[in-house]
Design a protein that fits this description.
Blueprint (H helix, E strand, L loop, with lengths): L2 H9 L3 H20 L14 E7 L6 E7 L1 E3 L2 E6 L9 H8 L2 E6 L2 E9 L2 H14 L2 H8 L6 E7 L2
InterPro entries: F420H2_quin_Rdtase, Split_barrel_FMN-bd
Protein name: Deazaflavin-dependent oxidoreductase (Nitroreductase family)
GO molecular function, one term: coenzyme F420 binding
């Protein structure tokens, strides 16, 4: 892992980092698409990032969000941390309402089926996610008692 990526992982638990992250997310989404997933607003890093496109639970419109992910076999694991805010991110409600989604990893797009994980599986995947982004632990503490949702995204055959 590069020194830069290590630095980002250490800074990720800071409140100011999360505040900036929320502000730059729309720009990050555009930059991801333009660069084929090679660049983000925070520069070229080694953090595993994807774009997820869900169907809006109320609007029915396509909604795209950049997310960090972990791998569990061929599945992608994504965390609804919402940077530690008290409310769940909208994309998690979208996946609960409509589990079919699309992900873009670098320049590859594929269909996935989302499943909200709970219990022992959630505990295991939480540890997997923390290895990718240790800042999730700080976000969980700041989430005002909300259990952060974790989803398993299984690629469609």
């Amino acid at each position: 892992m590069s020194h830069y990526t290590s630095l980002l992982r250490r800074l990720g638990n800071q409140r100011w980092f999360a505040a900036i992250g929320r502000l730059v997310t729309p720009l990050d989404k555009r930059l991801y698409r333009l660069s084929g997933g090679r660049w983000s607003v925070i520069g070229k890093h080694e953090l595993p990032t994807l774009l997820i496109t869900t169907t809006g639970s109320r609007s029915g419109l396509a909604r795209t969000q950049p997310l960090l992910y972990a791998r569990d076999g061929s599945d992608y694991i994504v965390v609804g941390s919402n940077w530690g805010q008290a409310n769940h991110p909208a994309w998690t409600a979208n996946l609960i309402a409509t589990p079919a989604a699309r992900v873009t990893v670098r320049d590859r797009e594929l269909g996935v089926r989302a499943a909200l994980v709970t219990g022992a599986e959630r505990d295991q995947l939480w540890q997997t996610a923390l290895r990718v982004w240790p800042g999730y632990a700080a976000y969980a503490e700041r989430a005002d008692g909300r259990e952060i949702r974790i989803f398993r995204l299984t690629p469609e055959s």
